[in-house]
Structures are given as structure tokens and as C-alpha cells.
Amino acid sequence: MRRILSFVVLFFVALILPLGCSGSNQTNVSDSNTPSNVLSVYNWSTYIAPEVLTQFEKEFNAKIKYDTYENSEALYAKIQPGNPGYDVAFPGDYMVAIMANEGLLEELNLENIPNRTHLDSTFMNAPYDLENKYSLPYQWGTLGIGYNITATNNQEIDSWATMFDPKFAGRTAWLDDMRHTSHLAPIRKTTNT
């Protein structure tokens, strides 16, 4: 079975989520003059700007096959029966441990990743991969509610319950990831200054 390399998106219990989690299932960033070097990537949508992928292709004379998924469970469902050909994937923290235990991830050769020295030590050797054998930190963020105060008629969104207010019906969106939306913590109000 072909295993894949994994770079992890850091999540902190119920407070962290990836920044973009919706979108299409596949975006091919290349023209028909395809080089023989192909890097097949499986990632959350909106994590890498298309122009960055295009720049990488030009600089390294390579083609990127870039597929996206909505949550780590979707990634697991596609990889678990057998890797369909991905070279790099970006599972969430808990999924790294599951996939490593099942032999779905290839160990990283850290000598081939010299830029790892620039990663903040706070995010290294996490409990789900203590020696960074299968993953390196890539991104992290904070779960919260964002809204346009003008669009809410100056009503502040100061609780999760407000998200269910009938006057906002059909105008709210939730992350399609039960693991992170079912463990919501109380909202701490912040303001821009």
C-alpha cells in the first residue's frame, strides 16, 4: 500500500480550526503542457492561493494536482481504503495519530526538510506525533464567529445562541466539521481598535 507524507494543521481542543473548509473537490492548476514531474496534494480548500501553486509549477517545472476536502474524516475516508496517489496531505492533529497507527502515513525524512528549524518549538513534538515522525506543523487558527455589524443592523453577535436567532435564518454558515463545532467554547468578546 502506498503511504503518503503528512503535514499537520494544528488544532487546539475545540478552539482551533483550519481557516477554510469549503469548496470544490478538485482544482488542477496547470495548462495542457504538463511536465513529467507531478506533485499530488490533498488539502483543505482555500489553504494555498492558486497563484502560489502556479508560481511553484513555473519555478520547479512541475505540475501540481491539487485536490481538496472539507474535513479530516473526508480525507481519511478517501485514503483508508488505499492511497489513490497523493504525495502530501494535511490532516488535523488527531487524524495524524489515527493514520500513522494504521500505516497510512510515510515517515518524514527530516534531513530533507531543513527549513523545519524555523518552526516555533511550541508546535513541535505534539502529543499525537511526539517525535515529528509523520507530521510537521503547517497552520493554526482560532475558532470564532465573524460577522458584518452593518449586515446585522448593528446587533452584536455575542453568543452561539445568537447564531440560531430566526432573524438570521438562511444567513449563517457553520464549519462542516462535527469535531470542532460540537465542542464550542464560550465566546470572548473582542473589538477592533
Describe, in plain words, how this protein is organized in 3D.
- The protein has 193 residues and is of the alpha/beta class.
- It has a domain at 5-139: Periplasmic binding protein-like II (D-Maltodextrin-Binding Protein, domain 2), CATH 3.40.190.
- 17% of the residues lie in helices and 14% in strands.
- The chain has 4 helices and 7 strands, in the order E-E-E-E-H-E-H-E-H-E-H.
- The protein has helices at residues 50-60, 72-79, 93-101, 178-181; strands spanning 5-6, 8-9, 26-29, 38-44, 63-69, 88-89, 137-139.
- The strands form 2 sheets. The protein has a 5-stranded mixed β-sheet with strand order 1-6-4-5-3.
- Strand 4, helix 1 (50-60) and strand 5 form a beta-alpha-beta unit.
- The protein is globular.
- This is Extracellular solute-binding protein.
- Pfam families: SBP_bac_8.
CATH class of the domain at 5-139: Alpha Beta
Q: In angstroms, what is the radius of gyration?
A: 19 Å
Spatial sequence of strands, sheet with the most strands: 1-6-4-5-3
Strand content: 5-15%
How many distinct beta strands?
A: 7
Secondary structural class: alpha/beta
CATH fold name of the domain at 5-139: D-Maltodextrin-Binding Protein, domain 2
Overall body shape: globular
Give the N-to-C terminal Cα separation: 53 Å
Low-confidence stretches: 6-32
CATH superfamily of the domain at 5-139: Periplasmic binding protein-like II
The appropriate CATH architecture of the domain at 5-139 is: 3-Layer(aba) Sandwich
Largest sheet: 5 strands, mixed
Helix content percent band = 10-25%
